[in-house]
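Private note to self, pasted from the team thread so I don't lose it. Backbone tokens:
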């Protein structure tokens, strides 16, 4: 069991501060709010241009022992919002650097026999796809056909290397789309396989795909 957790919440734009305040009031040291774009949950909706909304993604790194109280506070703060208001999940953090100090996972602090209730909640995975800007919709289309629902896109950029293309002697740093998709564990391989077959990921340097198991997946809003 890791000493730290990364809690990620995805909610409508301008609602992130509300969740962050609830988390801070329950012992969280703070968080970072990023703005993203939610893609339609069906390919039919995407074709019609329906279902896209602006989202806040809140990232909070916390001590593992505070996880339950902070998650409960976030869920409580969103209980009066509409059903399907947002989602929350957690990932393990192996190392944390804070104010010049590095904290690493320490097996000595693990409880005897890892918390079974936590391990049993890891029935979903986060698939992260980083591709050249403009290809996120193509990736999401393939992922939906393989069983995924919606995803969230963040704007990013690549880092220049010595052999990157230059324009008037200046490195061109391509804009990127970073797509986050949460899928049920049993669908992960099918979704990864479908994404891997895309033409936009066939050439070296076109993108990267990786997956991470998540725990404590929770839908926010009215039940």
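Design output:
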């Amino acid at each position: 069991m890791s000493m730290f957790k990364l809690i990620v919440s995805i909610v409508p734009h301008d609602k992130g501060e509300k969740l962050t305040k609830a988390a801070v009031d329950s012992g969280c040291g703070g968080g970072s709010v990023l703005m993203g774009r939610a893609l339609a949950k069906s390919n039919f909706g995407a074709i019609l241009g329906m279902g896209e909304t602006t989202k806040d993604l809140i990232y909070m790194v916390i001590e593992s022992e505070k996880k339950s109280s902070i998650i409960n506070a976030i869920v409580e703060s969103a209980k009066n919002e509409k059903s399907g208001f947002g989602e929350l999940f957690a990932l393990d953090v192996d190392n944390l650097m804070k104010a010049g100090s590095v904290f690493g996972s320490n097996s000595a602090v693990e409880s005897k026999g890892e918390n079974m209730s936590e391990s049993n909640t890891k029935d979903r995975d986060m698939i992260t796809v980083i591709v050249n800007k403009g290809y996120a919709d193509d990736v999401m289309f393939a992922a939906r056909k393989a069983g995924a629902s919606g995803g969230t896109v963040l704007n990013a950029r690549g880092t220049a290397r010595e052999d990157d293309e230059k324009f008037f002697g200046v490195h061109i740093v391509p804009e990127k789309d970073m797509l986050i998709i949460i899928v049920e564990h049993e669908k992960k391989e099918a979704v990864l396989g479908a994404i891997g077959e895309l033409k936009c990921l066939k050439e070296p340097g076109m993108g990267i795909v990786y997956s991470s198991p998540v725990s404590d997946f929770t839908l926010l809003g009215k039940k």
